Structure formats: C-alpha cells, structure tokens
Amino acid sequence: MADLDDLQRKQADAAKFAMKMVDEKDPERLKEMAEQLQARCKELEKMARGMEARLQPQEATGQEVKVTLTPDQKARITEQTGVGVEVVTLYDTKKKMWSRDLPLGKIEPREIEKMAAQQAAQSKLVSETRTQVEKIIKQLKALNVPEIAENIAELERDPTLGLAKKGK
Questions:
Q1: Which residue in 2, 55, 63, 167 has a CA-CA distance of 20 to 30 Å to 47?
Q2: Is-contact 65 100, C-beta < 8 A?
Q3: Same domain membership, residue 69 and residue 25
C-alpha cells in the first residue's frame, strides 16, 4: 500500500517528466509523452484513491461531530503533517458512533488525534496534487501543441485528480 511519501515521490517524478516535455519539439513525440504523463497521472489517481479509502471513515451513517483539538494536539498534528488543524470532523459509522460515544467519554484523545492527522494528510494531498497539476498544465500550455489539448483540458477539469470530490 502506498503512503503519502510514495505518492509525493511519484508526483515529483511526473512533474519532472512534464518538464522534459518543454524541450521536446517533435509533435509526435510530445503526443507520446503526453499519453505517458496521462498514464502516470492515472496511476497517481489510483494511489491517491487507495489512500483516501484507507483514511476515510467507512459506511458513514450520517451524524457529524466536530471536535476542537487541544493546543497540544494541534501542535502534534502540525508537526506530523505540516497542516494546521483546529477542528476534526467525525461521522458516525456502523462500527463507530462518535456522536454517542464522545459525550460518554468512551473515546480516547489519541483516537481523535489520529482522525485529525488523517484529515490533515488528506487535505495536504489534495492541495499538493492541485499545485503540481497546475504547474504541469502551465508547462504543457506553453508548448502550444494542439495534439495534447485534450490531455490539458482533462487536467484542467480536475487538477486534484479526483481527490477533492470525495474528501468532503
């Protein structure tokens, strides 16, 4: 299973590959490279969706609970993920009824912190993916090659490679 570091490495590799496209002059080779880049992006999407599935609460049944983190928890989450989180949003599932168990004191603070770290990692992944893809789009547009216009349009439609759609 891929982790955030693996995904970020593959993202960086895709960005480096896209940078090579800037120097390519042959339209046929550019088209091949664009197809390869698209395949790499699809692989990134698959990895990201797998990670998202592991991080997202499963079988949400509805009720939402927002928990404000303590200053110590906020500091640890920021140190671990590089993302500042004030509030973690939890959803009841068949396996975990946050709305019932939290007021009764049945939830350990480390469980809340774990969920906050997962949400922070997801947020960071979406943000970094968008940033990288937007850079790639800009580089591809600068090439001004009509054969890759469709690839560019696809990236522009969703620069998060599908990560932002389900992360809510």
A1: 63
A2: no
A3: no
Three-state DSSP at 71 gives helix
> Strand ranges (DSSP E) for the chain?
60-68, 87-93
Question: Which residues touch 50 (CB under 8 Å, ≥6 apart)?
Answer: 1, 2
Mean pLDDT over all residues of the chain?
83
- Three-state DSSP class for residue 89: strand
pLDDT at 57: 53
Whole-angstrom distance, CA of residue 84 vs CA of residue 82: 7
Q: Where are the beta strands (DSSP E) in 60-116?
A: 60-68, 87-93
Task: Give the β-pairing of 87-93 and 60-68.
Answer: antiparallel
Question: What is the Rg, in whole angstroms, of the alpha carbon atoms belonging to the chain?
Answer: 19
Per-residue pLDDT band for 166 (boundaries 50, 70, 90) equals low
Q: What is the pLDDT of residues 120-157, one digit of tens each?
A: 988 888 888 888 888 888 888 888 888 888 888 888 88
Q: What residues make up the domain containing 10?
A: 4-55+124-166
17-21, 86-90, 91-95, 152-156 — which one is most confidently predicted on average? 86-90
Residue 123 pairs in a beta bridge with: none
